[in-house]
Amino acid sequence: MAATLSEGGCRRLLQLLLLSRRPGLPLRRAAAGLKLQHSRGTHSRSSTWDVHAFMPESAAFPQVRTYQELLEISVRDPDTFWGVLARERLRWVKPYQTVQDCDFSRGRVNWFLGGQLNVAVNCLDQHVHQSPDRVALIWERDEPGTEVKITYRELLETTCRLANTLKKYGVQKGDRVAIYMSVAPLAVAAMLACARIGAVHTVVFAGFSAISLVGRVNDAKCKAIITQNQGVRAGHIIELKRIVDEAVKSCPTVKHVFVAHRTDNKVHMGNLDIPLEKEMDKADPACDPEIMNSEDMLFMLYTSGSTGQPKGIVHTQAGYLLYASLTHKYVFDYKQGDIFCCVADIGWITGHSYVVYGPLCNGATTVLFESTPLYPNPGRYWEMVQRLKINQFYGAPTAIRLLLKYEDSWVKKYDRSTLRTLGSVGEPINHEAWEWFYKVVGENRCTLVDTWWQTETGGICISPRPSEEGAEIIPAMAMRPFFGIKPVILTEEGRLIQGEVSGALCIAQPWPGMARTIYGDHQRFIDTYFKTFPGYYFTGDGAHRSQEGYYQITGRMDDVINISGHRLGTAEIEDALAEHPDVPETAVIGFPHEIKGEAAFAFIVLKEDTAHTEPVIQEQLKSIVASKIAKYAVPDHVLVVKRLPKTRSGKIMRRLLRKVITDESGDLGDTTTLDDPTVVTEILEAFQKYKQDKSAM
Ligand code: 7RM
Fold this sequence. Notes:
Blueprint: H1 7-20, H2 51-54, H3 67-76, H4 78-89, E1 98-100, E2 111-113, E3 116-117, H5 119-130, E4 135-140, E5 148-151, H6 152-168, E6 176-180, H7 185-197, E7 200-203, H8 210-220, E8 224-228, E9 231-233, E10 236-238, H9 240-248, E11 256-260, E12 273-275, H10 276-282, E13 292-293, E14 297-303, E15 311-316, H11 318-332, E16 339-342, H12 349-361, E17 365-369, H13 380-388, E18 392-395, H14 397-403, H15 409-412, E19 421-425, H16 431-441, E20 447-451, E21 487-490, E22 496-497, E23 501-507, E24 517-518, H17 522-529, E25 537-545, E26 551-556, E27 560-563, E28 566-569, H18 570-577, E29 585-593, E30 597-605, H19 614-628, E31 637-641, H20 654-661, H21 678-693
Bound molecules: 5'-O-(acetylsulfamoyl)adenosine (7RM).
């Protein structure tokens, strides 16, 4: 399918191009503060560096000569920039007419209106036409050395068979389908099969409990669930089908459960259950793609907020795909033929954008990592890098912090000379981890990018690359906005501040990858992201901007914590703990943890007449959290206190609790609003005693 433009589209594009060529538009050359990285032996200076070779689509902006000018046009004239990129980089059935129609005050975000396309065609068919035998997926199975390669032709056929199977059982355009699987080619095919027939997938991380699955499936009103008989991770079996069996009892909308087979073990098959591979064998290997509008839903993904239930973040077709693929190419310096490896699980947004959609849209070979960093030993990642000849490696700081505790020989004994780019995502990366990743893993020669983004942003928004070639990278800093991203920093009162400052990180204008709504609750979307600072998208994160204009993320400003890169609301954990009949009150705080980044600390108040001992209740509470949410959400510490510190209006003063557990109790700040100041001494004593008992803290 050729990229074509209708007459109207042509006219509009011409207007845009003419507009962008208007003389007198100030295009500043290189930004202040750009230094060349000295550790790089060879670099061409920006003056000889060809921006049109760097981004071929930029030929549409002939007046642009430097990287800085390209970045500026993307922010100053987003319609021109994104209009050209969407036209050139996506395969359209029908070209769009309007680049964007957005209004933050209403939470209205629309891109490429009038356009029609199919995401699966962009990710598969276009590459099958050009190079059917190129490897699309390398499935790095849990058992090292047993990887499976799948070509674009094979992935297209598998996707079509799966799509036809879904159709046969009544799944139609617009229906929601839950995917509860570990990282596997069939999981990727399931996502793409939904995209092909216009169904909306919601991938639920396979570490979530049955109750969490129920919550998401019911909120999305899913018609079907696609799962596996079992999962395999670090040599252990995960009973995925059994968890689904338990869940579907409470999911009235689910008509079918498709069961793929990861192991040879038999599992119970009930009324709703359909053996997936068997059905796929019978299905037609070709499936006509559904023609989708740019703003039809592609997927929803649940993520935690500061209050209540996780919210279903909605992403749509064209804008999301364009943003995921463009960031994949430019942040990681992906070149055709590279083997790209993002070790994230497909249950998170990182897996959606940088295991599946970004790389496949670019025709890349993408690695699906099923295992864990320590299985069968701490050399797993690097042995895989050597064996698969990986060029880009994208992972989480928590894994790096874990691995740097082991001998460097676990890294050094493997050949990592294929690596060019290393990436970090999900949480702040501390200096020690950054340096180890850069020096030991990357041999001081790879580019290491700390990438900041969110489920809601669809793709990377702040990252040291792309940039002018050879531009400096400051360790452990996300630094530079991506094309089209205009970060701003506001004070708590909502004042926009220029220059060096710390404050609330907001984004001042829409970009194609951003979320469109919260499923079933658009008002919550507006309230969460556009109310606090009218006119801006509020990220929920704080940031510092340096004199040079570089951004450093300082962490969440709300009650969201980040455990091993997994986002979680403290309110969710509190809600789970409150299920215990003997626990009337709880407060959960995030506190720094050496490996996990953050861990949960729960303060609980017990009923006076409880029949259980404290240790029994503590264990019961931990298992409630594991079964209501997931294992990773279980608090590391559960401390029984007589009362919680509250203001006179009854609000729990978490700030105080945080100071107690981070040993800052010498400076508790303003406690005058406390209802009863003696509660502080009480809690401090309880905490000291707890620490003594658990000398591990
Ligand atoms: C991609 C992802 C989003 C939250 C975000 C931040 C934190 C992510 C970084 C980071 C510091 C980073 N999506 N976060 N990346 N903090 N430096 N490079 O993680 O929706 O699951 O989480 O994660 O707080 O708001 S997410």
